[in-house]
Amino acid sequence: MTQPNVSQPAQPASQRSTQQPAPAAKSSRLAIPDLISIGIFTALYFVCVCVATLVSTLVAGAGTIFLPAVAALICGPVFMLSVARVGKFGGITVMGVVIGLFLFVSGHFALSFVASVVFPLAGDLIARIGNYRNRVTILIGYVVFCYGLTGPILPLWFMKDAYVASLEARGKSAAYINDLFSQISVGSFFVAMVAILVCGLIGGWFGQRILKKHFVKAGIA
Amino acid sequence: MTDVPVGRSGPRAGLRLDPRAKLYLLLLANLLLFFHVDTRGEAIMVALFLLPLFAAGRWRNGLRLAVLYFALLGLGLWSDAVTLDGAGGGSGGSLISMMDGGANVGDGTAAAWATVGHVAGLLSVGIRMMMPCLITGAYAFTTTSISEFVCAMRRMRVPEMIVIPCMVVIRFFPTIAHDYRQIRNAMALRGIAAGRFALVRHPVQSLEFIIVPLLMNATFVSRDLSVAALTKGLGIAGEHTCMTVIRMRWFDWATMAVCTAPMALAIGGVL
Amino acid sequence: MSEPSSTMSPRSGETSGTIPSRAASSPSAPIITISDTSFQYTHDDTGVGAANPTVADFASGNATSPADLALSHVNLVIRPGETVMLCGQSGCGKTTVTRLVNGLIPNFFHGPLTGTQFVCGLGGDGANGAENVPIESLVPLVGSVFQNPKTQYFNADTTSELAFPCENIGMPSADIRARVAEVARRFGIEHLLDRSVFTLSGGEKQRLAVAAATMLHPQVIVMDEPTSNLDATAMRDLHNMVAELKRDGVTVVIAEHRLAWCADLIDRYVRFDGGAVAGEYTAAEFGKLLAEQLEAWGLRAIDLAPYRAALQAKTGVAGIVPDGGEMAERTPVGHPLPAHDLNDGLPSEQGTSQPLAIAKTETSSDMPAASSVGPVIDSAGRHPSVASVLADPSEPQTECQSFVIGNVPIIATHDLTVGYRRAFRRDIADITLYGSEIVGLMGRNGAGKSTLVRTLCGLQRPLAGRILLHDAPARPTALTRAGFLVMQDVNYQLFADSVREELLLGLGDADDVIRQPVDVPIAPLNAAQSSSSGAASHGMSVRDGNTDVQPSATPYLHPATLGEQADRVLESLDLLPFAERHPMSLSGGQKQRLAIVSAIMCGKELIVLDEPTSGLDRAHMMQVGALLRGLADRGKAVLVVTHDEELAALWCDRIIDLDREVGA
């Protein structure tokens, strides 16, 4: 609409007149085909997240806190291919925003929207350092991107707060309550965060391996 | 010719709110999560949020959610009773260690019951907290057609950069399901990762076999969709209109007001 | 055809102001001018110039040899109101021309472009760097219909899809609604409105695609192989839509190699070959061309009558039943011979009650049918490109079949009912599939073909009835082990990162010593080899593990390892040079062959192919046919689901027509 960056007509003209092969003259802005690619990879990513939700809840009822970690483990190939195919600033961010939007509309906590904007944006910036070509920066970008999914698990801590509040309301001593939750808050939080880091690295490495093994070889990425 | 019913691909029965009103309800539900409201306020809000679901004719859905909420409420009350009884019993250990082995502590059944009570209480309170979000989310998801959703985004001046991927995501979901079934069939025919537990036994390999064809097909589809979209003018600069008309009507405003008032009171601690 | 554009006044009143008036272009001035244009696809990172994924681009020039020009010095003039067909083999450049017309070249498909192109008064000189036409300005002028009905939708519901172009040019809501209703009424697709696109059949999707392309009342409609996935009914619907467009004076450009479906509407044919215009013909001139001439150009037949006649003859014939003793019981009951439908040229199928006569008719049906329908069919057997590829479906082979086949059918069904619990249910007349036989499964869309083959392959449970595998009742898992389905979209079936790995997948390492040789890959199959009873034992060796091959066959040593075995099978299907390539970098036809090879490696006995020739030109269709014959000669039972009347008539031994059995 009012965004000039989505209107494509301006840039191909220069491309054609010089008759350069496309990549050289390619605009750094997201064009319609890029947005469509992003949409498709986002859909796949979203499906992976749903699978991760399923897996993490199946493994243990309280395993929901490992949702981002499980997602990080399996979403690597999707992310890596989308970076390879789009390779422009904004791609990763848009992916995060759209995921956040869908999470929010489907009744997830609003903070998950914030998280899935901030972390992907940071990941996008990191991947841009290597111009979306450098494997290391993309991998780090992926790990950061994965923290975008911490949104859906944040309510777990809210739940704890709510329960603590309800216990307090019934006159339990603060010491008792603290005792009860000392481990659940600090311990599980760190475990969950470290798990994302580790799983993100493994998943990202796996994604890059798949990318090289299949998509680069087939001439698609 | 204008009486041809167009743009109502969603469920047609009943009264439905404007997508923007639904969004407002979602935000309200989230606020409720932020501020801890006591059980009474929560119950009132849940009842209010359930109303539009019934108004839209989603009886079964609404009833199911209502039953779930009351079951949780009951669980919570039971948990209150149990944990009050065993007030002193559980002290000394954290919840985690109690979960690990409430029984091996050997304090007897009281402690075990207290543990169960705490877990139940946590579950009840936790899931009950999520219920407003779940209800409004279910309402928004099941009663909004895609064209309404897109139209609402455009009316709210969401950049095309976001709108287009959203449209594609919705368009592509059924394709993923179809692709997945095809791939599983192909794997069965080839005897790759066949059998019920193969996915569990060889998770990495299975993931590769499933995700690579999915991604391959995705790149092909993205090419074809780009072609289709470009030839139909998705890249045209200037405002894109919507065939579907969305309007804020009196009952949209009314619903928003009715839901806001008790919420404000509850947060303010008046209620 | 060259009707002055003013005759379509009924609609022009409703045309919105944003759309350039059609009256602006004078009726005599060309609406599309392409002069001295050359183009070459670049393999850029959008992946669009790279190996084309669709089967249609089967071995096309731009997929395999990037150095080739997609178009070289093409001159083409199209006048308003003309209906022009661009024809030629795959990769001849006809699709590239449609992309020039709708602006996808150079806006989406990049590459060096020279020459001048004017479409509807817009255009420029590609070579001199003049202002090029952005695709956006062509949107209201040119409507496009593409090949694949599944992927040319941007919206998930039909009404939104129709409204989509109007929304994009910013029409007000009420106007869009009026336009949608008008177009739906015009093409009689009101019943398709407000539905999920995913519930439509292929034909309905394609009708919707044409309707969506006309939403902005364009002056030109280009169609890129619109019929490649359609059945006869859907093609008739499409034909009527094109007729409607033609009546309204819209210029229609169709790139196709199926010529028959709209032959009466075409004003002019332009034949492409190797990226250049090889000839232009008026409809009258083209009609006079001999069938052999079309064949030699790789075009499909313009007159399908002889093929239909041959099909009739093959339909409903019982399986080849080798020995008389058991036949009476085994003759499928649900196959009444529709004698009234049969072609006069055939021996009038005397004695349908005597199975032996049926068998006889079947084995010899190739010849009488061929002679009765003239040179078209007859030439099939000795089609040059066919004979060299694999096998020769000529008489000696057909005759030997009756000896080769064992008594026991590979698959037989009894009172089968297929379907899904509620959505769909269909009774299937009993079917028997023998080895060494190509059976065509035909019927309109929705007749239950794919449900049936999925059931035969054990991918879904039958609702009722039994399926016998080698005369013993078989569970779905056993059927899945014995059968293989080559899907229409083979991309789902290839998993490995190289062609050789693809074959070894799930079997073991390349160095593994082979335990049970898969059937003998006879490199270039020839009649002498398969006419011996050796072929039968080849078929058996799959099950017996019998490595002892008849001395009469070519001297043949079993490969010691799986890897060697894989190479042999690859070699027999001309895939060995690509052994290290990634399967997805192959052309559509090579992928199809690879999927078949993987089935051979798994030792499958029943091979089902789903629409193997959709979107293929004649030469490639014949290649597929020869490949099927090669499979049958290895003792496989081959079942082909197809709408392709030419393929079925030329290569299938027998046809099962599900439409015809509806009454039974």
How does this model look, in words?
The complex is a heterotrimer of chains A (221), B (271) and C (664). Chain A is 75% helix and 0% strand. By secondary structure, chain A is an all-alpha fold. Chain A has a domain at 30-154 and 193-216. In chain A, helix 8 packs antiparallel against helix 10. The longest helix of chain A has 43 residues, at 174-216. Chain B has 271 residues and is an all-alpha fold. Chain B has two domains: 19-145 and 247-268, no CATH class; 158-231, no CATH class. Chain B is 72% helix and 0% strand. In chain B, helix 7 (160-190) crosses helix 9 (203-231). In chain C, strand 7, helix 9 (232-247) and strand 8 form a beta-alpha-beta unit. The radius of gyration of chain C is 26 Å and the shape is globular. The A-C interface holds A 7-9, 12-13, 15-19, 21-23, 26, 33, 85, 87, 213-214, 217-221 and C 42-47, 50-51, 106-108, 110-113, 126, 129-132, 134-137, 497-498, 582-585.
Radius of gyration of chain C: 26 Å
Radius of gyration of chain B: 25 Å
Q: What oligomeric state do these chains adopt?
A: heterotrimer
CATH class descriptor name of the largest domain in chain C = Alpha Beta
**SS-derived structural category of chain C:** alpha/beta
Shape, principal axes of CA atoms of chain B: flat
| Count of helical regions of chain B | 10
What's the CATH superfamily of the largest domain in chain C, by name? Answer: P-loop containing nucleotide triphosphate hydrolases
Fraction of residues in helix of chain C = 25-40%
End-to-end Cα distance of chain C, whole Å, is: 45 Å
Write down how many β-strands of chain C occur, each being a DSSP E stretch of 2 or more residues: 20
Under CATH, the topology of the largest domain in chain C can be stated as Rossmann fold
N→C terminal distance of chain B: 53 Å
Number of distinct helices of chain C? 27
- Percent of residues of chain C in beta strands? 15-25%
